[in-house]
Amino acid sequence: MIIVLAASALIGLLRPGLGASHHAHRTRAAASLLALPASPPPALKIGPPAQLSSGRYLSRWTIVRRPTVALAEPRPNATVVAALATRAPEGTPNALTVLRAKTGEDGALWIEVRLPVLPNGSVGWVRRRSLGAYQTVDTRLIVDREALRATLYRNSRVIFTAPVAVGTASWPTPSGEFTIRSELTRYASPFYGPVAFGTTARSAVLTDWPDGGFVGIHGTNEPQLVPGHASHGCIRLRNSDILRLAELLPVGTPLTIR
Amino acid sequence: MDGSPSFDRFLAAVDRDGAIAETRTRAEASLSRRRLLGLALVGAGASLIGSSRARAARGLAASDVSILNYALVLEYLQASFYTEAERSGALSGKTAEAARVVGATERAHVEAFRELLKSQAVKRPTFDFQGATEQQQPFLKTAVAFEDLAVAAYKGQAPKLQSNAVLAAAVGIHSVEARHAAWMRELFGITPAVHAFDKPASRASVTEIVASTHFIVAKPQLTKRRRPKYTG
User: Exposure of B50 by Cβ count < 10 A (0-12 exposed, 13-18 middle, 19+ buried)?
Assistant: First the structure.
């Protein structure tokens, strides 16, 4: 409005051929406009639109919000691959890596997720409504069973690397793509060290192990065995290394064991 | 924080994991520490301390900080929604382009609020959009609702702002949100501008609407105190 009034006044001032009284009136009008207080500068400095990064190294995870089943295909009558509880054996929410989404023939939204079941590497389709919020991470953890080393990347940059002990020939550490799904702390067990991460990887041998034989990444009270082939399938780090890793590794990070 | 009943209801509705309350408690504790420090340094400077308690980030009135945090939660909601939609890759054509452009703007709003509020900014809640970001029509329907809500919410708070500088910023954001609303309405196939006058929305009504979506959820607690039972 102010701009319109000012423009009108200025146009009036510039129009030729009018008398002196008109000129004086217009001058007073322009002066009154100029006397208006200036607008205060905005309190917020809003920067340019913030474009997203490429997301090349991002991965998504979610939790099971209600008990459900994972199916082989994104349709209601497909083969059941696994039953999914809302809680992992550790008692934490059942976290799963999200792979992709698809609208089924029934019009429902289906999500393909990595499953914490044998055989390792299983995936399945779950209705979106049974899952929770999506979370993203820009980290990925790679455990190399030949090099006996764990390496954590953030985007493409190495932010942690340390020697590890993995399973023996009788109780091998499984290979494949998994998820870091929990972090256990403040327990009293020197055997597992100060921190233990739960994964969705399962021993194919120790299937009757308590809680189902899941593979953990944890500390140890036998640091002299790291690096080496010494465990029942778990990935052991020296305690100083697992504590350092705990500062950097968010739950939900994809895990590759190769 | 103004501690008004309506804002408390809003917090209760949106702050299921306690993130906002935690920040609020921390901010209040910080103010208390500063107050104690002030007492130690100036002795009888209680009136000055009382004045500092009433003022917040960059000399803003506590009620303005409260309104800014309320707006920040709405900006978080929108920015997270568009970010998730863009990341999902499920949108196409003009809708995908709109999500990209509007999302970038909403993220800029979030950063501006956080920069102004600094340690008094509420934390980003956890959002579960329940698939609304992954299919075109649910996305547009939700985007229209969010943008219309934001426009009405800004309109509802603008007259209550004490700082003209904050008001100037709010008016600048309000018109951008109105453009977003018109854009999303057009894409959704409904008339962008129907009425000659838009009604404001109160905090209470915005609170109810946001709560009814169940889009704000508790953050999963994936760290636990428990002895492992892994294979070892």
Answer: exposed
